[in-house]
């Protein structure tokens, strides 16, 4: 109990830092324009080779996790012990994945965005659902998030080669809190701390670097300039995901956890590990 | 109908009747040709050919404008950033942005427009494919390419349920607004927080739908057999073979122009 209480202090500090950084990033973007906002400067200062190496490592790891979990049926347990898991992909898992995709994809399209600069940039509120789906529904929820993003691209009319990166990138956004958090209930300080660290910080950055690295490498196919990819797109995705997940994700998870658990859809109640 | 199945617009045109595999092959050809050419005049021709196919499919120009509008950020980024790369700063300066002193040369602008078409061409092509292909057929085509049928099923159900969820979302928004929720009030943090009373009941409804859907799938023996059969099997018709022959011709002609005659390329030393 004492340990739980002491964890609140770093949790509040991390939450505060994340919210301040994200809001500061959004404000400087609105005031100083896309080339001079504070987050782009950070990306430019470290240089493209740095981001290519970091993004490359994260891309390989992310793709490996995606293939391992979805296609090969393997997962890992701390401290990195590879185990076989059995996700049945029965009617419940398929329904969870499909409806997560419908809510996420539909939410991304229907709720539109909160405009920062009219006609140019916005924050997508439905992004707050991706870590929640991962934490509560496990791999079917992660797959649903990935499919949902794909559908949102499709409905918005910009489905292209870049959407492949978006597909796995959004899977990662849901997968990181699902896999790396030990407690998803949001009823202990440790759980909240883990959420802000893995779900907000690591998940947002990993997702952003994954998609940006893909866009950079697939440049001959996609056609986007690298200044746009690393100077605007990458920091924007970090800010977008971090803002919405930091501000409301924790509250949503707290409220929805007992509902999902009660209906028997919580991932830990459905998955089977074959040790 | 179209709102139930995403972008799909029912029709009886020659493009609608093509096998989805033939249409996906068209996408690959468009992508390959758009990559091969960097001159916007050639990539523009490809775009015109895509629009022609769209008109054959009786799609409205509004739909193409919708794609162009949604891709505007990416296209503007191309036009702004590509010409500023050092190798593209050679030749005659067409104009300069006064305060920033950004110079735009003829080669730089040509190259940037070529890249903008590289974004626009595949996206518009995919829009036409999705607008003319019934989702069930598209899924069957991907299954024939080796994708597990459950993956296709997830995609189909998700598309089917999007209008349901959208209607649920609207109902929840109206209910909460009648209780005093003001969605657009306050600063950005307050506006984001306003979504909590929307998403909580929405996900709770989703959980209920999930259980109901799973039960109805169970009652129809979903997953009882490894391989799924279809009532209407996809079959390549003579029109598909004519279409593929046209695509082969386009590729041969395009590659001949680009790699044998050496046209359609903007010489840049990176």
Structure description:
The complex is a heterodimer of chains A (275) and B (270). Chain A is mainly alpha-helical and 275 residues long. Chain A has eleven helices and five strands, in the order ααααββαββααααααβ. Chain A is globular, with a radius of gyration of 18 Å. Chain B is mainly alpha-helical. Chain B has two domains: 145 residues, no CATH class; 79 residues, no CATH class. Chain B is 66% helix and 3% strand. Chain B has a two-stranded antiparallel ribbon with strand order 1-2. The longest helix of chain B is centred in the middle third of the chain and has 30 residues. The radius of gyration of chain B is 24 Å and the shape is flat. The chains are: A mainly alpha (275), B mainly alpha (270). Chains A and B meet through helix 2, helix 5, helix 7, helix 10 and helix 11 of A and helix 4, helix 5, helix 6, helix 8 and helix 9 of B.
Please outline the helices and strands.
The complex is a heterodimer of chains A (275) and B (270).
Chain A (H helix, E strand, L loop, with lengths): L1 H5 L1 H25 L5 H9 L1 H25 L1 E4 L3 E6 L4 H20 L3 E4 L3 E3 L5 H9 L1 H18 L5 H19 L8 H29 L1 H4 L3 H37 L9 E3 L1
Chain B lengths: L13 H4 L2 H17 L3 H17 L4 H10 L1 H10 L11 E5 L4 E4 H27 L2 H10 L4 H30 L9 H6 L2 H24 L18 H23 L10
Antiparallel strand pairs in B: 1-2
């Amino acid at each position: 109990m004492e340990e739980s209480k002491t964890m609140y202090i770093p949790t509040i500090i991390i939450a505060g830092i994340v919210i301040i950084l994200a809001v500061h990033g959004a404000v400087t973007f609105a005031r100083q324009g896309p080339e001079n906002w504070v987050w782009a400067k950070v990306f430019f200062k470290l240089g493209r080779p740095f981001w290519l190496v970091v993004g490359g490592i994260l891309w390989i790891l992310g793709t490996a996790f995606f293939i391992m979990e979805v296609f090969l049926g393997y997962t890992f347990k701390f401290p990195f012990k590879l185990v076989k898991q059995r996700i049945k992909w029965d009617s419940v898992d398929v329904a969870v994945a499909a409806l997560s995709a419908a809510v996420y994809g539909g939410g991304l399209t229907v709720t539109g965005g909160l405009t920062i600069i009219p006609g140019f940039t916005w924050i997508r509120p439905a992004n707050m659902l991706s870590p929640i789906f991962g934490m509560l529904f496990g791999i079917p929820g992660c797959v649903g998030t990935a499919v949902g993003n794909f559908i949102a691209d499709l409905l918005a009319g910009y489905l292209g080669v870049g959407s492949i990166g978006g597909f796995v990138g959004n899977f990662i956004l849901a997968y990181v809190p699902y896999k790396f958090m030990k407690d998803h209930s949001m009823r202990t300080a440790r759980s909240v701390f883990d959420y802000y660290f893995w779900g907000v910080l690591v998940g947002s950055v990993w997702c952003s670097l994954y998609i940006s690295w893909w866009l950079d490498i697939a440049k001959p196919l996609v056609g986007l300039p690298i200044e746009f990819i690393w100077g605007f797109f990458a920091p924007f995705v970090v800010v977008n995901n971090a803002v919405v997940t930091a501000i409301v994700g924790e509250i949503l998870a707290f409220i929805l956890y007992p509902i999902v658990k009660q209906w028997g859809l919580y991932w830990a109640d459905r998955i089977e590990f074959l040790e | 109908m179209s709102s139930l199945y995403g972008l799909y617009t029912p029709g009886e045109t020659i493009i609608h009747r093509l096998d989805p595999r033939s249409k996906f092959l068209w996408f690959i050809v468009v992508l390959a040709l758009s990559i091969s050419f960097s001159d916007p005049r050639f990539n523009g021709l490809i775009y015109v050919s895509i629009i022609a196919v769209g008109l054959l499919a009786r799609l409205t120009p509004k739909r193409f404008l919708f794609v162009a509008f949604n891709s505007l950020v990416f296209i503007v980024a191309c036009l702004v950033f590509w010409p500023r790369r050092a190798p593209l700063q050679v030749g005659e300066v067409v104009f300069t942005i006064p305060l920033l002193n950004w110079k735009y040369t003829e080669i730089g602008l040509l190259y940037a427009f070529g890249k903008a078409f590289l974004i626009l061409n595949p996206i518009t092509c995919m829009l036409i494919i999705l607008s003319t292909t019934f989702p069930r057929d598209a899924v069957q085509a991907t299954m024939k390419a080796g994708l597990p049928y459950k993956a296709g099923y997830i995609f189909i159900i998700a598309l089917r349920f999007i209008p349901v969820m959208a209607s649920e979302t609207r109902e929840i928004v109206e209910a909460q607004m009648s209780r005093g929720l003001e969605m657009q009030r306050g600063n950005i943090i307050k506006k984001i927080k306003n979504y909590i009373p929307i998403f909580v009941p929405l996900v709770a409804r989703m959980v209920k739908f999930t259980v109901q859907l799973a039960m109805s799938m169970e009652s129809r023996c979903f997953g009882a057999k490894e391989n799924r059969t279809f009532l209407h099997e996809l079959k390549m018709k003579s029109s598909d073979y004519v279409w593929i022959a046209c695509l082969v011709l386009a590729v041969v002609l395009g590659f001949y122009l680009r790699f044998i005659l050496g046209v359609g390329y903007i010489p840049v030393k990176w």
